[in-house]
Amino acid sequence: MQVTALKKSFGKTVVLRGIDLTVPDGKVIAVIGPSGSGKSTFLRCLDYLEKPDSGTIALDELVIRADQAHKKDVLALRRGTAMVFQQFNLFRGRTAKENVMEGLVQVKRLSEKEAGEAAEHYLNEVGLANRMNYYPRQLSGGQQQRVGIARALALEPKVILLDEPTSALDPEMIGEVLVVVGKQAKQGKTMLIVSHEMDFVREIADEVVFLDNGLVLEQGPPRDLFINPAHERTRQFLARVFQSFDYVI
Amino acid sequence: MGKLFDFDFMVDAFPRILRYLPVTLEITFIAMIIGLVLGLAIALSEIHNIPVLKQLGQGYVAFIRGTPLMVLIYLTYFGIPLMLEGLNRQFGTAFNTNSIPPLVYAFVALGLNDAAFNSVAIRSAIEAVDKREIEAAHSIGMTALQTFKRVIAPQALIIAVPNLGNQIIGLIKGTSLAFTVSVIDIMASARIQGSRGMRFIEVYIDVAVIYWVVCFFTGKLALLIERRLRRSELTTPEEDEDPDDNIMKMYERNI
Ligand SMILES: Nc1ncnc2c1ncn2[C@@H]1O[C@H](COP(=O)(O)OP(=O)(O)OP(=O)(O)O)[C@@H](O)[C@H]1O
Ligand SMILES: [Mg+2]
Asked: Best exposed site among B2, B149, B160, B175 by fewest CB in 10 Å?
């Protein structure tokens, strides 16, 4: 996936000032940055949950120019990506299994049987083999998020977009979700993840992108960027994050 | 001096009035369909901000809100023949304005009235659907139509059912005005029975009981439908086959 000069404003508030980013196949790119820097907006633009004002998004041979995006292209982009939401965004009226099946049946046009088998496979993959027929409200936050991840995985997207997948969770549930995401990362899934879990980012990300005020301020392998950031802003941000981290521990 | 209250007369009249219940139900049913379809159309045109239609819808709702049902019934009763007559003169069509069955006026007037109030209920139900689920539907690549059918409509229905149930009860009661345009329903029948015996309180008690029972069961039915639709929210967790949800162990073994 390749993003070029992506811009987005809400009314007079300029949120993304021209983002360039490449997500190579099989790599995990982590996006970090202060609150309000536009991380969520950026991810949402890539799934057209927000309509970018300008710039291009390329996913393999599909190239979308924001100013002339057709419905068909948007649909193709959404079908080539999958989103894991901060708030899980599960279909409350459907069981875990039905949540995963929904896209397979409606969008990928699999038969109920095939979709059911795939759903079971992916729910098993995220450790929910014994929660298939539970409704979201019967599941803990961590379990709900794992259903969300299974739903994304089942669609076999080219890129998985994860927007702070653990920040709505109680601390004791963060681990189980990170473990699942980490496993997928190691299996070579292409991911773009926004996360404040710095230890986790350091472990799984091939590249870290520091987003500040709607711009990519710097980018590099976690080791370099965490230990030796080029910009003062990055340094301040990291100091703040790691400090608050120490408090927690 | 005659009896103050003729119990036997009340009992005798009851089945004669009840015989017309199907007419009352027919008006209710057809007006309900008109009200739901038109109400949905108005709600959607407002939500999707469709120019012209949206303004028409809003004007329509404002008009109906300020028009007593009785007045609306007379407006259709005198307005529809006038409109058809106008068409006849303008385009040489040959509608016979005298052959319109009175039931039609009841269908139209009550349906139009119901549509305005339904549109408000339907719109607020659709707007109350969880945006996060809509985003999830979009993100997995559903089309707008699929999203509506699979996510928005089922949830909006649950939210709207209690309101729509109340609307239908209002509609049932509203049918009691249909006698004014010569429809013979339970209300009209009660009036006829009453004039025949010159006893009125008896027949109005009869008809009140019928309305009361029908409304009661309609309310129950709405509640039942709502419960049924909400079953995913009301079920309690099943007994765990394997209470130890051992995701961490599972991966520790693998890593
Ligand atoms: N729908 C919207 N309408 C108006 N402004 C918005 C909207 N969504 C986001 N914004 C604004 O855009 C800016 C960036 O928001 P965004 O949610 O992308 O930040 P973020 O980096 O994800 O922050 P956080 O770490 O708190 O999640 C914020 O100033 C926010 O107020
Ligand atoms: Mg965010």
From this structure: B2
**CATH number reported for the structural domain that contains residue A46 in this entry:** 3.40.50.300
Put simply, whether A219 touches B (Cβ < 8 Å) is no
- Percentage above 70 pLDDT, chain B: 90
Residue B249 reports pLDDT greater than 90: no
| Residue A36 CA, ligand 1 centroid: distance in Å | 5
pLDDT at residue B255, as a whole number: 44
pTM above 0.95, yes or no: no
Nearest chain B CA: its distance from A17 CA (Å): 24
A contacts of B235 (beta carbons < 8 Å) = 135, 138
- ipTM reported for the complex, 2 dp: 0.91
Q: Hey, whose CA ends up nearest to atom 29 of ligand 1?
A: A36
Name the residue of A8, A13, A196, A237 whose CB sits within 8 Å of the most ligand 1 atoms, as the mutation to test its pocket: A13
CA of A200 to the centre of ligand 2 (A): 17
Residue B212: which residues within 8 A CB-CB, separation 6 or more? Answer: none
Contacts of A91 in chain B (CB under 8 A): 133, 136-137, 151
Full domain range(s) for residue A217: 16-60+158-249
Q: Do A81 and B154 touch (CB under 8 A)?
A: no
Query: Do A192 and A241 belong to one domain?
Result: yes
What mean pLDDT is predicted for residues B198-203? Answer: 94
pLDDT tens readout for residues B52-61? 999 999 999 9
Is the pLDDT at A249 greater than 50, yes or no?
Answer: no
- Identify the domain boundary among A157, A175, A198: A157
Using a CB-CB cut-off of 8 Å, the residues of chain B touching A126 are 247
Average pLDDT, integer, range A173-192: 92
What is the number of CB-based contacts under 8 A between chain A and chain B? 103
- In the reported structure, the alpha carbon of residue A232 is separated from the centroid of ligand 2 by a whole-number distance in angstroms of 22
Domain count, chain B: 1
Report yes or no on A1 lying in a domain.
no
Does the CB of A70 have a partner CB in chain B at under 8 Å? Answer: no
Asked if residue A35 belongs to a domain, the reply is yes
Examine the domain organization and report whether A199 and A169 are in the same domain. Answer: yes
Report chain B residues whose CB lies below 8 A from the CB of A47. 138-139
Tell me the pLDDT tens digit for each residue of A33-61.
Answer: 999 999 999 999 999 999 999 999 999 98
Indicate the pairing of strand A207-212 with strand A215-220.
antiparallel
Give the count of domains, chain A.
2
The last residue of one of the domains, among A108, A128, A157, is: A157
Q: Which domain holds residue B150?
A: 15-128+143-233
**A104, A170: one domain:** no
Are residues A139 and A163 both part of a single domain? no
Q: What is the CATH number of the domain that holds B199?
A: 1.10.3720.10
